[in-house]
Amino acid sequence: MVKAILVSGLIGGVCAFLSCFITLKGWSLMGDALSHAVVPGVALASILGLPFSLGAFIAGILAALGMGWMKNNSRLREDAVIGVVFTSWFALGLLLISLYPSSINLRTIIFGNILGISDADILQVLIISGLAIIILLFKWRDLLLYCFDSNHARSLGLNTGFLHFLLLALLSATAVAALQTVGACLVVAMLVTPGATAYLLTDRFGKMIGIATAMGTLCGLIGSYASYFLNGSTGGCIVVLQTLLFLFTLVFAPKHGLLAARAHRRAAAESHA
């Protein structure tokens, strides 16, 4: 249980850090796609006797590159491309698991199994999380500019192609790390909700990162701890807690909340009258 709490807090913080860039870039659907696209990689890695994280990461990268190629070489809109790719890859993973049963349980892939995490898996999570945090700390300004305005970033001489691939790689690696905690179905929530919540609370990106990371870490720690007493899904507790905080912020945020927006409209109407 102690391992589960600590790993959940770590993964929650890393996902929240990355979620700020995903929210700014508008890649929420991309996170959903990659979290499902790693399933065939896990299945193939299990069949070949390789680490499932390696297979999941390669599958995520290939799916992301496939989505980019299809978007650039067809008339399809991005949402249609993402929908086609992630559903087909997810279905391929389910087919491989059904044809070649292995020691990896389908339920573990989809819903996670943080309470059964091994020391080797913890080391894997630590390595992936550490590398992701280091890269984000060193490249966050370039990634911020790319996510905010890729054309402006290109005009300043930044390699936007490299930044695009780097963000995809970070997204895939983080999804792999979070797979063990909350499973493929809930990874997208951890990669989107903290950033969306922080976005409502501040207009400065530095503060947004701090708020989102603190929220992701605390929800990971508290959610996993609460799951022990509720005897419920650890990933479910974490994501539900994040969602409750988002809904509270959506209503009561001092500047961008629903109540603040209503008060602003009322004041504007009275001023006009």
Output the number of helix runs: 12
Largest sheet: none
* H/E topology pattern: HHHHHHHHHHHH
The overall strand count is 0
The proportion of strand residues reads under 5%
Seen as an oligomer or otherwise, the chain set is single chain
Kindly provide the radius of gyration, computed on alpha-carbon positions and rounded to a whole number of angstroms: 19 Å
Number of domains: 1
Question: Overall mean pLDDT score?
Answer: 82
Question: Which secondary-structure class do the elements indicate?
Answer: mainly alpha
Morphology = globular
**Uncertain runs:** none
CATH superfamily: ABC transporter involved in vitamin B12 uptake, BtuC
- Helix content estimate: over 70%
Query: Could you name the CATH topology?
Result: ABC transporter involved in vitamin B12 uptake, BtuC
Please write the CATH class name. Mainly Alpha
Keywords, separated by commas or semicolons:
globular; 85% helix; ABC transporter involved in vitamin B12 uptake, BtuC; 273 residues; 12 helices; mainly alpha
